[in-house]
Input
Amino acid sequence: MADEERALLGSEGGSGGAARRLPACHPRRLAHRLLVLALMCFLGFGSYFCYDNPAALQTQVQADMKVNTAQFMALYAWYSWPNVVLCFFGGFLIDRVFGIRLGTIIFSIFVCVGQVIFALGALLNAFWLMEAGRLVFGIGGESLAVAQNTYAVSWFKGKELNLVFGLQLSMARIGSTVNMNIMGWIYSRVQHLLGHSGHSTLGLTLMIGGITCLFSLGCALILAYLDKRAEKLLGKEQGKTGEVIKLTDVKDFSLSLWLIFLICVCYYGAVFPFIGLGKVFFIEKFQFSSQEASAIDSIVYIISAPMSPVFGLLVDKIGKNIIWVLCAVITTLASHIMLAFTFWNPWIAMSLLGVAYSLLACALWPMVAFVVPEHQLGTAYGFMQSIQNLGLAIISIAAGMILDTRGYLFLEVFFSACVCLSLIAVVMLYFVNHLTGGDLNWSARKREKLQKVAATE
Output
């Protein structure tokens, strides 16, 4: 087992001459491992690219399919509904049913098929079919992310793992950014070729966007081949998520953990649905062109791509997780208030939102590991993702209904209220943690020192 780990971590073992004699395509070689890393990063590119297709084409979807904003936002809700349940079973399916290689291919196929159904719904002018496509797409999307992380742990377990997770997250954000900035242009090119706009133009545009899903499926197939090959050459076992889901553990969750769940739901509910509706907001309120609106709507993802690994390192080095989360939530609230009540250049507010979003993800999610025992981690993270998806589905529909009946000002007040709830939960978490002697707000130095003491004892 030790030999296997050294091989996967790039430790060549033996003499330098023996290492040099390995062929370039051997799994121990750096070039081979870099190829595997690239394939892992691109594995989720298509999924993230197509997830926000509706946001990039909001005006076109609503005009061509003749739907209101509530129906439009249902496209996001349908993505989230299956993941309210699947968050608990993705790891089980990978570990016990399919295995990591077959599981990744199956989830990639779901993403591809879902995008094709989504595009066909537009081509056939059947909005219900578009919703069905988003449902199928959602079944594959979140589970594919679990598979991606499992591959990363399998190949890069050890000191490189955080860097690999950071690179995967950055590639996901790049996929979202490229989508925001290119889908409108593709639509205009297709419109020019066909000579008219309409549901057929929308359908072809979405079908072209689906090429990214095929690309990611290709990466899944190649990665499965390379992983199988490494299994033969190195005796490497298939990766496992290690998730143990026991719903009975929920009754043992602490108040601190429930507050973390509340922060997660309220915060992300004020970010993702806003980005889904942001393009038209920037066109109508700030008189931006369609291209400018797409660019500013994607700034959150653009900032998140490079900043997520940086903030991850920062939080690891300093600790004080609750303080970082508090800073992120307050900054997000300031961003929404600016967008709601001022006509200041929205680049300022959206850049602040991008920084806050990146910081919160790095500080909030690791806190779960501090408040639950290791054997309950799988259940805790599964439950957190489950209620996050439930919250996103409900808030997306509510946001669409508010926009249809009340307009953008009320919508921004609604999102600000969500962030305020998140802020209240953070303050409560601070005091609960302080009163119970919890370690959520310890410095990294203090945590490391106490871990060493515990280890020696």
Summary: The radius of gyration is 23 Å.
